[in-house]
Design goal:
Layout: E1 7-11, H1 17-24, H2 34-42, E2 46-53, E3 59-67, E4 73-81, H3 90-104, E5 109-115, H4 119-127, E6 131-136, E7 146-152
Parallel strand pairs: 4-5
Antiparallel strand pairs: 1-2, 2-3, 3-4, 5-7, 6-7
């Protein structure tokens, strides 16, 4: 049985770049580049949230979101969790922090895209209150189909 690591959720800093890029390398497609991370960390319309282990100061995961100035809709762009800590609450904590942030920005709805063949991510999003809102044929770099999922944040639509 895996034990839940102690971790904190915070906004990423430029000092996290090496670890963010290393975490991306754990996955085989649609990786975020160092340059993109650097730009997003400095952006007013993007937020990069990280889960950092309390004792090791190692990044366990990250969450990227975009919000246009003046918009009430935010886009959750990417969630990466180190496979060694999956299903231990890291993703849920990152989602909750990001949702709180977009609510504080005045957003009432969030959208995201997920690969059609990624059943675990689709199930997680459904558990968090997201519903399928559209098909995205050949959406990903490798030609895989995607699905747009949305969540209404008003009336207590936060992750429990």
């Amino acid at each position: 049985m895996k034990t839940v690591p102690e971790f904190i959720i915070r906004l990423a800093a430029h000092s996290d770049l090496d670890q963010l890029v290393s975490l991306e390398r754990l996955f085989s497609y649609d990786r975020v580049s160092r340059r993109s991370f650097r730009r997003m960390i400095s952006s007013r319309t993007a937020e990069v949230w990280v889960a950092e282990s309390g004792s090791e100061r190692r990044l366990l995961g990250n969450f990227i979101l975009f919000t246009r100035k003046g918009s009430t809709v935010s886009r959750f762009y990417s969630l990466m969790i180190d496979p060694s800590v999956r299903r231990l609450g890291v993703g849920k904590a990152l989602f909750a922090a990001a949702e709180e942030s977009v609510i504080n920005r005045g957003c009432t709805r969030v959208s995201c895209e997920v690969r059609r063949d990624n059943a675990p991510s689709r199930a997680m999003l459904a558990r968090f209150g997201y519903t399928e809102a559209g098909n995205l044929p050949a959406y990903y770099d490798d030609g895989a189909d995607g699905i747009r999922m949305v969540k209404n944040l008003v009336n207590g639509g936060r992750i429990a």
